[in-house]
């Protein structure tokens, strides 16, 4: 599978299932393969079989959660990610995905601790930090939001959305010059950033 020979990988996974039909691991591996080919329903059946064989198979819950998330079924994704967490899967990507499921379910307050934990496990994860900053901003915790968004731009100086949201945050704090500076940086990085262009127009009326 890692070498890109998916047909051969599928044959090996099938053989492993035949030889060890009560082992959850080959089902999880086959499900991961199916998921990579967007065979969502088939992948879910294999994840479900793995969970049936081993109700504590955290990676099966995580894999199923990703399938549901990519299918925009965020309620079901959240449940699967919570089950993965309950079964001791301690991984930054899991915390990020659970946080993002809650973001999509418009529950930023609940998302914050998971996004924060994702950043604690990987301080270079700019996307997790950016989403954490957005959730803080949504709850009007602007000083804390600015701190995280500024850190994003330190880690990635081409993160246009971070500059844009910093611009908005500074505008809310009536710091027009800082706001304009951040919006200009967003436009410099991404000249067609519609939201930044619109916000700049509103600020310079």
Automatic annotation (TrEMBL):
<feature type="repeat" description="TPR">
    <location>
        <begin position="58"/>
        <end position="91"/>
    </location>
</feature>
<protein>
    <submittedName>
        <fullName>Tetratricopeptide repeat protein</fullName>
    </submittedName>
</protein>
<keyword id="KW-0802">TPR repeat</keyword>
<feature type="repeat" description="TPR">
    <location>
        <begin position="160"/>
        <end position="193"/>
    </location>
</feature>
<dbReference type="InterPro" id="IPR050498">
    <property type="entry name" value="Ycf3"/>
</dbReference>
<dbReference type="InterPro" id="IPR019734">
    <property type="entry name" value="TPR_rpt"/>
</dbReference>
<feature type="repeat" description="TPR">
    <location>
        <begin position="24"/>
        <end position="57"/>
    </location>
</feature>
<keyword id="KW-0677">Repeat</keyword>
<dbReference type="InterPro" id="IPR011990">
    <property type="entry name" value="TPR-like_helical_dom_sf"/>
</dbReference>
<dbReference type="Pfam" id="PF13414">
    <property type="entry name" value="TPR_11"/>
</dbReference>
<dbReference type="Pfam" id="PF13181">
    <property type="entry name" value="TPR_8"/>
</dbReference>
